[in-house]
Amino acid sequence: MRKIISFMHISLDGFVAGPNGEMNWIKLGEEIFDHVGKRIGETDTALYGRVTYQMMENYWPTAGDKPDATKHDIKHSKWYNKIHKVVLSKTMKDAGLADTTIISDNLSDKINEIKQQAGGEVLLFGSPTATHSLIQQNLIDGYWLFVNPIILGRGIPLFVDIKDKIKLNLLTTRQFTCGVTELNYTVDRQ
């Protein structure tokens, strides 16, 4: 069975974005790009909320073709263009969207159908609202978190309206030279 893994940058105090969606506090660099690139290279499906999908779709399809494209831009653009995208949205329609599935209702049933399909893990990129919806329906199987060395104090939290405890098992950790710490958890279903 495929697993849904939430991939998120997070502040030390649990926020995934500032109060207005700001993400300028996230530390990135070649070391993190290379590390993330290895794992996502094994993924054939990405899951997004509408806002994140539209951001991605406005940049990644042609990012690798630009004259000033970085190594990361080229690699990620190629990956983005070949994967299947699943978008959670009540307002988008999938008319003409290449290799993209829109889920607008019956979230639990449709995500469970995706989990039954052949393929590797499905990475849920950013998308705090979509993540909240999946958490509330117990559909996330793991968390791949990049804890940034900052306390925001306020913003959009990763975890809201949690009804029951979610037990996690730590799989791996990694410290990056920029101060970011990777925490890779699986949800303990027992």
From TrEMBL:
<dbReference type="GO" id="GO:0008703">
    <property type="term" value="F:5-amino-6-(5-phosphoribosylamino)uracil reductase activity"/>
</dbReference>
<dbReference type="GO" id="GO:0009231">
    <property type="term" value="P:riboflavin biosynthetic process"/>
</dbReference>
<dbReference type="InterPro" id="IPR024072">
    <property type="entry name" value="DHFR-like_dom_sf"/>
</dbReference>
<dbReference type="Pfam" id="PF01872">
    <property type="entry name" value="RibD_C"/>
</dbReference>
<feature type="domain" description="Bacterial bifunctional deaminase-reductase C-terminal">
    <location>
        <begin position="2"/>
        <end position="180"/>
    </location>
</feature>
<dbReference type="InterPro" id="IPR002734">
    <property type="entry name" value="RibDG_C"/>
</dbReference>
<protein>
    <submittedName>
        <fullName>Dihydrofolate reductase</fullName>
    </submittedName>
</protein>
<dbReference type="InterPro" id="IPR050765">
    <property type="entry name" value="Riboflavin_Biosynth_HTPR"/>
</dbReference>
